[in-house]
Amino acid sequence: MKQIIKLLSVIIVSAMVSCNTAPETKSDSTTETAAPAGGQENVSDDVSQKDVAKVAVSSKDHTTLVAALKQAELVTALSNAGPFTVFAPTNAAFDKLPAGTVEGLMKDDKKENLQNILQYHVTLSALDATSFTEGQVLGMVNGDNVTVNIKDGKVMLNNSATIVASIKASNGIVHVIDGVLLPPAKK
């Protein structure tokens, strides 16, 4: 009887060990697919509301702004969760700058200057145009401030750019403006 119990014990233990041992698998790194490069801006979604970056990209009136955002490497940042309020100058607004200004800022050695100017057009919140008040001061992403003025019912920024349209986005709001905001000179 002891021999039968020993034999059954060996059979049971062998069966348990063989059931718990998974076959060895090898990982072949050549068959793995790499994640797509880029950030949130590379997500293709034609159903959901556009983020602030995609609002600009889809506008024929903001091609200069989009080119500047790409050169300054800020598209990914504006594609993130936010919330953002973006004051988006039109192509015509950029055309008002002195000749050669935009072209000069688009050079690699001027990237920091371009980033500073573009970040002066963004604040971290989602502010509807109706929420602005006379004399309101907005802290911008670059660390400087913009002052809101209300003239004849129109919202102006630093008395130099007027909001001409507003577009809600999934991560904030885009206010189309008719001028480029230039940060104050550093002291």
Automatic annotation (TrEMBL):
This protein's UniProt keywords: Signal
Pfam family, one: Fasciclin
Matching InterPro entries: Adhesion/Biosynth-related, FAS1_dom_sf, FAS1_domain
Domain spans labelled FAS1: 49-181
Residue stretches of biased makeup (Polar residues): 22-33
Signal peptide: 1-22
Chain spans, region Disordered: 22-46
GO terms for cellular component: extracellular space
PROSITE patterns for this protein: FAS1, PROKAR_LIPOPROTEIN
Presence of keyword Nuclease: no
Name used for this protein in its record: Fasciclin domain-containing protein
